[in-house]
């Protein structure tokens, strides 16, 4: 009974840690917008007819800030060639981001019986059950012989496609 209580306590700690980290990726996803990237390309020209050079510099500085978060969006366009992703474009990159923000808390160290990323022996029996089963366990939660998987890794605000992308990413690392 004590190992189960210890596992539950560790899972709870992971959930709390994962929930706190999940806010960063969602805020990083909000600012990237096409107008921000368009504004970043417009100030790159040396001449700005309306306004003085000093005002153009401050405008450039303010438009440069939104373009910084768009830099992580660039690898998303290269992700379609990645194997094993769900139907959405850039799923591998998104899966890696979700893993880094939420899943690494348990799957990075094998806490609460979570299979460690890259551990082929630990992932093999899970992968053999099929991706639909892995998706179901990740989305709805699961109490297995070896450990506990909280629904959506404890971050219930994660959309289902992002959870599936994280599963795909972790499975791809175990091959």
From TrEMBL:
<dbReference type="InterPro" id="IPR009056">
    <property type="entry name" value="Cyt_c-like_dom"/>
</dbReference>
<feature type="region of interest" description="Disordered">
    <location>
        <begin position="22"/>
        <end position="91"/>
    </location>
</feature>
<keyword id="KW-0479">Metal-binding</keyword>
<keyword id="KW-0813">Transport</keyword>
<feature type="compositionally biased region" description="Low complexity">
    <location>
        <begin position="35"/>
        <end position="91"/>
    </location>
</feature>
<dbReference type="GO" id="GO:0009055">
    <property type="term" value="F:electron transfer activity"/>
</dbReference>
<dbReference type="GO" id="GO:0020037">
    <property type="term" value="F:heme binding"/>
</dbReference>
<dbReference type="InterPro" id="IPR036909">
    <property type="entry name" value="Cyt_c-like_dom_sf"/>
</dbReference>
<protein>
    <submittedName>
        <fullName>C-type cytochrome</fullName>
    </submittedName>
</protein>
<dbReference type="InterPro" id="IPR002323">
    <property type="entry name" value="Cyt_CIE"/>
</dbReference>
<feature type="domain" description="Cytochrome c">
    <location>
        <begin position="90"/>
        <end position="174"/>
    </location>
</feature>
<dbReference type="GO" id="GO:0005506">
    <property type="term" value="F:iron ion binding"/>
</dbReference>
<keyword id="KW-0249">Electron transport</keyword>
<feature type="signal peptide">
    <location>
        <begin position="1"/>
        <end position="17"/>
    </location>
</feature>
<keyword id="KW-0349">Heme</keyword>
<keyword id="KW-0408">Iron</keyword>
<dbReference type="Pfam" id="PF13442">
    <property type="entry name" value="Cytochrome_CBB3"/>
</dbReference>
<keyword id="KW-0732">Signal</keyword>
